[in-house]
Hints:
The structure holds three protein chains of three kinds. Chain A is of the alpha+beta class.
Amino acid sequence: MPQRKEAHSVERSTSEPVGKSVRRADAYDKVTGIATYTDDLQFGPGLYHARLVRSPHAHALIKRIDTSKALQVPGVKAVVTGKDAPEIVGMYLVDRPVLAGERVRYVGDPVAGVIATSEEIAEQAVQLVRVEYEPLPAVLDTEDALAPGAPLLHPNLGEYKVANFIFPEPGTNISEHFKLRRGDVDSAWPQCAAIVEGTFRLPQIQHVPLETHVSVALWEASEQVTLWTSTQSPHAQRDLIAQSLNIPHGNLRVVSPYVGGGFGGKAGVTMEACAVVLARAVTGHPVKLRMTREEEFVGTTMRQSLLARTKIGCDAEGNLLAMETAYYFGGGAYNDYGVNIARAAGYSCTGPYNIPNVKGDSYSVYTNLPIGGPMRGFGMPEIHWGIEQIMDQLAEKIGMSPAEFRRRNCVKSNDTILTGMKIPPIDLVTCIDKVADAVRLGEKEQPSAPHKRRGKGLAIMWKAPAMPPNPGSSAIVRFNEDATVIVEIGAQELGQGAFTVAAQMAAHALGVPYEWVRVVSPIDTKYSPYEWQTVASRVTWSMGNAVKAAAEDARRQILEIVGAYWGQDPSDLDIKGGKVISYKTEEEQPLQNMVIYGLPNENFEGWQGGPVIGRGSFMPTYVTNLDFDTGQGPRAVVHYTVGAQAVDLEIDTETGQVDILKIASAYDVGKAINPDLVMAQIEGGAVHGISSAFESLRFDEKGQPLNRNLVDYRIATAVDVPGEIGGYFVETPLEDGPWGARGVGEHVMVPTAPAIANAIYNAIGVRFSDLPLSAERIYLALNP
Amino acid sequence: MMSMHTIKVTVNGAAETLSVPSHMTLLQMLRDRLALTGTKNGCSAGECGACTVLMNGEPVNSCMVLAVEADGAEVLTVEGLADDGHLTALQQAFVDHNAVQCGFCTPGMLISAHALLHRNPHPSGDDVKEALTGNLCRCTGYLRIVEAVQDAAEKGGA
Amino acid sequence: MLARPGLPSFDYVRAAAFNEALRLLGEHPEARPFMGGTDLFVRMRDGFLQPPIVVDVKGLPGMQDISYDSESGLTVGAAATMNAVAESPEVWAHYPLLAEAAASVATYQLRNRATLGGNLCNGSPAADTAPATLVLEGRMVLHGPGGRREVPAEKFFLGPGKTAIQPGELMVAARLPPPRAGSAGRYLKLGRNKAGDLSIVGVAVLGFPDETAPSGYRFRIALASVAPVPLRAAEAEAALASDMPGEETFASAAEMAMEAASPIDDVRASAAYRKAMVRALTLRGLRDVWAQLASQEDG
């Protein structure tokens, strides 16, 4: 038999793998094409396909839908409209009809679904559905949405179910308003030696996962419903869809194989509820609904736009004294998830700084544009864009270096931050030092040609996982007869390495080699233990705690069994390399077989032990709500991850093109469970961050998307990669993190755009308050 | 006029005879008719490269090739790279360098890189980057992919 | 209208002979010839085209051939792929500018399908091979019911999406006359990314010694993406023929090239930026070609 060379070769044996750069658990499957994604699942000839009828108007009433011609197309099985499916769905604010009801609120809003025997037939029939609209004035700009007398996009806002920490303002287009009041900014301004004010605008951008959204739903006559889907949130989707569609939780099963990129876009509920209501119309047949790339740009979720008005002041020594800021997030047509982004931006509104006097208002605003939802950074990239530029400007005004200004003012361990909580220990100063050194910040270096200008810039960041107060994780650890280990989790592998670090943590806590551990995939709510969502850079920490607990639970059971068997105290025993060993007698007991069959007494007079199953669960219990008027409270968030990025770039003054020579990133991750995978996040995040600074979704004056394909929405390609990407991590342990670990998956792209903006200013003395950057804008700024 | 065609195509070394409609793409044929789901659909417009396969030794976006055009052709997909479970040097390099995250771009990347190493056994970093411009990745930032390709080249493999 | 998930249905015929192809195209007014499909398929998915029949002409005699002889010059079959052109020893040896232009199109995978003929026949003002074809004085060989005819490149592009191809005609080849002795060329393309993009601006510069020119040299400059058609910058060319080559002349010619451009604002770039980039790229192209010419003389 030829030897298989695979990532998970049992020839390799890595003990105590936490902290080691073991190979990814899923790499073999992904390089051979074996790895299964949702669109790869085979359902046989009974599979139906669905396509959606989408609104051509940004805002309109639906007067009439005529499905008769569509129904006549051979192969069409059903057409479902909002009348047939009046349900609404939503994460924190239940504001989104599964299919538009009385009105449409963005170009692309789904109005009906056609189910047919093939995708092609469904698409033909979609073209034959006749919808009569009465266009309404469209609100395409956040400021227009806020203006008095603006058309109300959600007149019934006051009646929507809403989480108790979200505060919409009925009678307006404001779906969330978070207030932060600390100290007294009015009396602080006069004490400032330098004040900088700025208005910053960011457009909507899209996640552009390589795998578009896709779901297959099956509604059986027995009322059992199964949803196969590419999602970060199998359990949350099950919960939200069950509630909206009145399906008993136990009757709804969500199965999610590998996800081809999430970045937040596959969190919460996007088009999956649609797939389920369509399946309901053709019980007994699975129905596939797959987004084309164009639909991905229009009809899934986007990062919110932001209008920020920020004013920050410091004294002559460079100590920050006051900050006043208003963040208006353009949330798009439905803000069910986006409201929490405004909230998170509110309670973190200062960025990673100690500022004694703060007045912050953060709003989520409805607009007739595509749905704003979670995207990597969850409000942090958006607000740091302005904050980090103002900090540079303040530093310049008082004659301090950008790095020194940050070192002086950045949050430090146990500081009391803007909401009144103490920040658990972190080390942002070392992060600043590392990146500043890496690019020799402050040292003016020669450009590579006379027509180029070289500049360096720094930006720092913080982000807390933005979650409800009670997000739980759970895990099961069990065994095969050969002592290989099965770990069951609800956290998803999006590419970040969740399955790999889960296996590492289980192996380490148990005492077996990493290569013995397999994480079960797909995630399946029927079998997988509960996980709130794979978002917020939370799973290494939260799922990790649950996995560690489950492995320790199994370990404890094993040591008790063997302890009793040997007549020894379990505290004198250990598991190493897959064997129980005694420190007292040096006896050994391999785990093989005993973890299932137990151990026989002498002469086989009875047995001891039996199948070992470890269980673990973790939920933070200390997060509190915050005061509605002041945003103050004992514990706003679980913890923060902090970091810094520095950029060294060149600008071609003849074309405006930017060349990133080097980008250095440093993050305090608490403990790098897999250092190489942390580096992989740093690299990927740096490139994503750079790309995001040049991306924007564009719309015409009617709200029609102008660049809804990859031809005109350009993302970074292999030749756009910076010359050098440096990554460093600092490890200040998180008290309740597994081995001290904290997440980093989003943080890696938070400071990138402002670091670039600061470097551009350093190079050519031009400040950009608005995104996206482009060679054109830079050129025209140099040549007005 | 012809709306259905009987074609003979060799896919990963196996001869297949299929009846395909004119407008079926090679991508659809591979995924839906031959259940070779390793090749991915990322955009159906020739922009993302997730559907890259070799056709007569040349990398093409299979979403932009008609199945009927593959009549008489040899097609190689990601499933055809490894030899009976033995990873190629390139695949092993992707594994060793953690050049894989979500994995959705990986099959197309491997095919494009495989073709590159055949026409240029010792590519520079810039050569690799240029050759992979047509394979988008949103996760890795490309660095490790480039390193993996050069590593495989050094080991004399593809 | 969002693009559909797949292609609409159509009949496909692989034509075996020119008269079969022409007959099929003539019988069905909405029939389309098909070579690489990189433009056709996109438009079909986007709903702009729904041809009932697609006629595959890339296998017709000579359509993929690339040949050169010193008397008649280069003949490139309309169905030669961009990679075939970019990697052809004949093209590299005698018309490296054309190879450079072909190599700048899209991505490697698309260049294995996109054809020179398709790039030219679509009549897009952004076609990357059009400027090179213009400065190299190319001629398009068309085959129709009346037989073959040739249209010079400068008469071929009539407007966005419009060329001199008549209904019932097919482009079968592009022909370039033998290159001028000592000629040097450069194609510069600006996109939104460093590679793989459509051009925001494309500039082809060709230069060669010519004792009939007062300056001793003739330059030809052609621009893509900055007017309804790809076009030559005649005024700039005239100035370069008469004035002494050097930085001042090049700068002035680049200004004239900029004046020749009449770009629009679109989702990719503004007219103002495009105009400025015509000047920037033309100046770079002239400097580069001049350096090539100078080194030829030295060597």
